[in-house]
Design brief:
By secondary structure, this protein is α/β, with parallel strands linked by helices. 25% of the residues lie in helices and 27% in strands. The protein has three helices and six strands, in the order βββαβαβαβ. The protein has a four-stranded parallel β-sheet with strand order 5-4-1-6, with helices on both faces. Strands 2-3 form a two-stranded antiparallel sheet.
């Protein structure tokens, strides 16, 4: 079996440092939310097998539904810290996965 690579997109947080009235993962760039552009980049990357989104599962699912992304495997609710999310929620799977981590909070 070949390598299986997951892209984990951390699209949670309030964007306190970013400022503004809209959380930065939802800010539009040329009419498209930042999180959509990020998912698009991984969706179009042949090295990525699946995309896992971490954040407000309901809001993300609703926002991304019209785009019909095929590599999104699941939505994971956020936690108190990034460490908690990665340790307990994202990696709580039996399979070994190499991950490409894109953290929208630090962009």
């Amino acid at each position: 079996m070949g390598k299986f690579t997951s892209a984990v997109i951390l699209a949670a947080g309030n964007g306190t440092r970013f400022g503004g009235k809209v959380k930065k993962q939802y800010v539009e760039v040329l009419g498209v939310p930042c999180v959509v552009r990020t998912v698009e980049a991984f969706e179009n990357c042949s090295l990525i097998d699946e995309i896992i989104l971490v954040g407000d599962t309901e809001a993300l699912s609703e926002m991304l539904e019209p785009y019909s992304f095929k590599k999104i495997s699941r939505f994971v609710s956020g936690g108190e810290t990034i460490t908690q999310v990665l340790s307990y929620k994202v990696w709580a799977t039996p399979e070994y996965r190499k991950a490409a981590l894109k953290e929208l909070e630090r962009v």
